């Protein structure tokens, strides 16, 4: 796949200090522990591209991975930790809001949520901001392997129904880093955002 080419490019202390702004960028966000690092590693077929970390609450950097010049994946810090001071939460929210609104190269946002409890408050805030800024959203329901097929399908249908409330471009798919369920759908959406869709040949 194209995404195996991803290489670590830079880290930034916050989203307002990302240097490059040319080309196309797709950001990945989610509550801590939602499975974001695992999904990035699965997408790129690299075991340690995004570190899967179990040390919560630390100030995390934003990591930028380059596919090629001017095509980037941006790994935003996980949110939702109770222990993070309120002032820091508010600062982060403000920065995130500005990033979504002002970052012209941002063409899509992947929001990762545990399939067993999607659309928590902060997830909803984030999606609402993205829709308000006209950024298309892919809601990936992670750890789908934890549910049996019937329950999994029911969760996806429920989440699709719930996603209509955002009145925007919000696509929902189940995903698993364990068995790669949903990986083709993720790649297809990224291809679309990066303008990498294959031409249709008769
Ligand atoms: P992050 O904090 O969002 O980057 O989450 P991680 O990728 O570090 O994953 C958090 C925890 O969930 C880790 O223990 C992972 O092994 C586990 N996990 C992540 N993805 C999956 C998945 O698709 N299936 C299962 N069963 N566990 C997963």
Automatic annotation (TrEMBL):
The keyword Nucleotide-binding applies. Residues 22-196 form the EngB-type G domain. Gene3D superfamilies: P-loop containing nucleotide triphosphate hydrolases. One of its GO terms (biological process) is division septum assembly. InterPro entries: G_ENGB_dom, GTP-bd, GTP-bd_ribosome_bio_YsxC, P-loop_NTPase. Its cofactor is Mg(2+). One of its GO terms (molecular function) is metal ion binding. GO terms for cellular component: cytosol. Keywords: Cell cycle, Cell division, GTP-binding, Magnesium, Metal-binding, Nucleotide-binding, Septation. Pfam families: MMR_HSR1. PANTHER family: ENGB-TYPE G DOMAIN-CONTAINING PROTEIN, MSS1/TRME-RELATED GTP-BINDING PROTEIN. Belongs to the TRAFAC class TrmE-Era-EngA-EngB-Septin-like GTPase superfamily. EngB GTPase family. This is Probable GTP-binding protein EngB. It comes from Opacimonas viscosa. The lineage of its organism: Bacteria, Pseudomonadati, Pseudomonadota, Gammaproteobacteria, Alteromonadales. The gene is yihA.
